Amino acid sequence: MDKEIEKQVQQLKEKYDAIGQDLDTHLDGLLHSKPMTYWDYIQTDALLNLQVQRTVLPDEMVFIMYHQINELIFKMILWEIEQLAYNEKLSTNVFTNKLERISRYFDMLATSFTIMQEGMEVEQYLKFRDTLTPASGFQSAQYRLIEFCSTELINLIDYRFRETIDRNTPFEHAFEHLYWQAAGKDYKTGKKLYFLEEFEEKYKDQFVRTMKEYNRINLWTKFKTLPKVDQENVKLRNAMRHYDHTVNVRWVMSHYGAAQKYIGGGDIEATGGSEWQKYMHPRYQRRIFFPDLWSQEELDNWGIDNLTGHKLLT
Q1: Is residue 249 part of a domain?
Q2: Which candidate, 171, 146, 176, 145, places its Cα nearest to that of 160?
Q3: Cβ atoms within 10 Å, residue 89
Q4: Residues in contact with 262: Cβ distance below 8 Å, sequence separation at least 6, in sequence order
Q5: What are the angstrom distances between the C-alpha of 181 and each of 55, 272, 274?
Q6: Structural domains of the chain, count
Q7: pLDDT value for 136
Q8: pLDDT of residue 252
Q9: The whole model's pTM is what?
C-alpha cells in the first residue's frame, strides 16, 4: 500500500476510534454509497420548488425569489457575525476581514434593489400586493437578529425612551420600546397592528433570547473590548463605519427608493399597514450601530447625504 494512503487510513482509524466507531464499518458504507452530485449537495430541487405564487401575475415570481435571496444572504451574515462574536482571541486583522466580508453581503443587497425597482411592472405589483396583506417585509426575523447581533440594545431603542432604559432594564421591557415597535402600532390608539402581533407570536421568544445572548458579545461591544491601540486601527474603524453606513443608510435608502416607486409618495399604505416612510428613512429612526465612530457633524446629517456615502478615515 502507498505510504500516503497508509497514513490516511491510520488517521481515519484514529478519528473513528476517538468516537468509539469501527473504521471497517464506515469503509464498507463508503464502498456502497453513491458519489456526490452538485444537485444533491446544493439541494437544488428543494430550493427551486420553494417559490409558490398566490396569483398568476408573472412579476410576482421575481418578488418572491428576490426576497428569498435576501433571506439567504441574511443567513450568511448571521453566520459570519456568530464567528466574530464567539471568537475569544479576536485580532484586528480577523475583525477587519470578517467585517469586510459581511459588508460585501450588504453591498450586494444595497445594489440589488434595481432588480425589483426596474424588474417589475408597477401595475402587476399593485395587483399581487393586495394578496399579500397583512404580510410585510417588516416581518423579516433574520434582519432583526442582525441588528441585535451588531450593536448594543440601547442603539435600537426608540429615541423617545432611551433615557428610561439602561442595562438593568428587563429585556422584555426593552423589547417593547425597540424603534420598530412604533411602525407596528396604530399611532392614534397605540394598539399593536395584526402583522406585529403575529410577528411577535412567532419570534418574540427567539428575539429576547438573542438579545440576552448577544448583550455582551455583539459587534459593537466586541470592538470596545479590544485594546485601545486596536480600537484606533484605521482599517478596522473604516470597516466598522462602512458596515454601519451600508446597513443603516445605503441599504435602507435603496429599499426606500424601491418602495417609493411602487407605493408612491405616501398615499398607499404598506401591506402590513405601517407608516413606512418614517419607519424606513434613516433620518427619522437614526439607526446607528457604532455611534462613537462618527463625528457630530456626521451624526447630525445621518441619512441626509445618503447617496455619496461616507468619508474614509486616514
Answers
A1: yes
A2: 176
A3: 5
A4: 120, 122, 125, 126, 129
A5: 31, 13, 10
A6: 1
A7: 83
A8: 85
A9: 0.88
d(CA 250, CA 128): 27
194-213 vs 141-150: helix crossing angle, rounded to 10: 30
Q: DSSP for 187-246?
A: TTT-PBPHHHHHHHHHHHHHHHHHHHHTTTTSHHHHHHTS-HHHHT-HHHHHHHHHHHHI
Give the per-residue pLDDT at 271.
Answer: 47
CA distance 249 to 309: 8
DSSP 35: P
Long-range residue pairs from 152-157, CB within 8 A, at least 24 positions apart, any chain: 152/215, 152/218, 152/220, 152/221, 153/211, 153/215, 155/220, 155/287, 155/288, 155/289, 155/291, 156/287
Residue at 253 is within a domain: yes
Tell me: cis bond preceding 291? Omega within 30 of 0 counts. no
Gap between the Cα atoms of 245 and 303, Å rounded: 9
The CATH code of the domain that includes 98 is 1.20.58
Confidence at residue 282, expressed as pLDDT on a 0 to 100 scale: 76
Domain that holds residue 272: 62-83+92-300
Name the percent of the chain lying above pLDDT 70: 92
> Does residue 94 carry a pLDDT above 50?
yes
Taking only the tens place, the pLDDT of each residue in 99-120 is 999 999 999 998 888 888 888 9
CA-CA-CA-CA dihedral for 265, 269, 272, 274, to nearest 10:
70
Predicted local confidence at residue 264, as pLDDT = 62
**Do residues 141 and 67 lie in contact, with contact meaning Cβ atoms separated by under 8 Å?**
no
Q: Angle of helix 234-245 relative to helix 92-111, nearest 10 degrees?
A: 30
Q: CA 64 → CA 49, 69, 70, 235, distances in Å?
A: 12, 9, 10, 37
- Inside any domain, residue 305: no
Length of the chain: 314
Q: Is residue 309 part of a domain?
A: no
User: Each residue of 212-270: pLDDT tens digit?
Assistant: 999 999 999 999 999 999 999 999 999 999 999 999 999 888 877 777 777 665 455 54
Contact 55, 127 (CB under 8 A): yes
